[in-house]
Sequence to fold (625 residues):
Amino acid sequence: MPFLCGAHNMPAMSEQALHILIIDNNQLRASIIEDGLREGARVRVTVLGETTELLRRISEIDPDVIFIDLENPNRDVLEHMFEVSRAVKRPIAMFVDQSDQASIEAAVDAGVSAYVVDGLKKERVRSILETAISRFNAFERLKRELEDAKTQLADRKVIERAKALLMQTRGMSEPEAYTLLRKTAMNQNRRIAEIAESLVLAAGLLGGEDDK
Amino acid sequence: MTDSICEIRAGFIPLVDCAPLVIARELGFAEQEGIHLRLSRETSWATIRDRLAVSHIDVAHILAPMPVAANLGLGPLQTEMLVPMALGTGANSVTVSRELWQALSPHMDAADFDAANALNALSHVVRDREARSQQRLTLGVVHPYSAHHYELAYWLASAGLIPGAMIDLVVVPPPLMPAALASGQIDGFCAGEPWGTVAAAEGNGVILTTNAQIWRNSPEKVLGVRRDWAESQSDGVSRLIRALYRAAEWCDAEGNQEQLAEILADERYVGERVERIRPCLARSLKSADGASLTVEGFLNFASKAATFPWTSHALWFYSQMVRWGQVEHSAQRAELARGTYRPDLYRLALEPMGIELPSANAKVEGALRSETPAGSRLGQLRLGPDTFFDGQVFDPEQLEAYLAGFKAKDSQW
Fold:
């Protein structure tokens, strides 16, 4: 592993690289976080996906910091393990500091939970936590953009079908059909795609369209 | 109908006993109280706790001992909570693998879920395995601060099967229990329905006993409320209690079972096949020989004061936290535990409705051997049985003696 240069990294030079474990069933998100963490600090990163042997794997990996997706049902397993502590060699606490309400809120908002070995210097962990949070947020943004794009595509398709129906059954031109859809949507305070969907559905029920 | 609308955000875990929250929303009981109830389905108790802590949600369907643990400062990220009402009793089972069942069955007279009978067989098998230096049995529980954990440990320890010494307990998320059982990762588990029924239906599990047999009409889930929210929204808390009370009554009515099963089966709620939810609602479970057995008092949503937050329940959980070393006993901590459950808020909300309410806030747990008329406002309340399978009683006024009894008993093994 290359040693990083730059003044802000100097104090960390004498310290051992932190070993970070990311537990995430979503491989894409895990790699986005992993990249972010590797860029910023001198760390070792291990990623763990779906496993039935979570406890054994964690005790082998022996991490300093654990990030786990908030939606992962194994969080209860993890916390119990820290409590009985036979499997982990060192005591682990949640987040950097219980009193640090702002980081906790930011983490939960982003959908990530962090567990940190006791005794680590706060400032070392905090920057790592911040990176993880921002990467989680970036992933969510990406996901949302993708979903929006999908919805847009689906919207366009259904509007095309509704227009075709109107052109067929009422002998309208394409611009006329679109205008009617748009006006109806405005009057009812709904999206054009919703109106188009209702129309396609109604036509299907009336037997006017049986290609579905 | 109340004049103003308030929005309440509630978290829940996909289990049959989340029903009162779901029904309050789906069938308009919340709306009738002027509540816009937003539900969010969560995947772990840790996430429920965290979302309460950062105010993503205001209230939650939560394991009955968790708010007590939170107020005692146990576990990470504690938030002060209070419990203004309970969300029913029972609905748990102890399910074992086919393999373990085969070892147990020669020691059992009948596959009738009897807790003493089952424990006797388990004790034989555990000691037999020890004599042959075989690996210890491992049982799954859903959380260290759960009724499942404390009742299972209570049951096991009464035969000297001390958790951690004779048998291992591990935490497994409820929906993953059947798979963990099938893969041999655990030899059995104690979890809420539908997971026992799912494991039995898939052919990997056998229902051995139920929590209703270990402790009759025992507490299970409660409504956990963030204290600061409750203090700023006292009217909202009252309205929510009324809506959930009506919903719980609806859930208990026999004629509503089919509709309830269908609503719960929905992906947004429990998300399991409807035929795996029906047995629990019919209070009927599949025994080892394939017969469906009705379990008296397996589940109560509303009847027998199932929504009343008895302070004796809070203190019983506290006594088990002390027993298993999760917290050190002090009079002050016991008081914190007791004060977590708030029958005063329950009464405040329901008294104006002319509903039957118990006269006392606590009872001697295990004293009612059968269904008995209880002291109440209108004189129509019937409670119990509330016996422990070993016949012991817990008098909340005699906490010290109860704790001392465990100390003497657990150290003799």
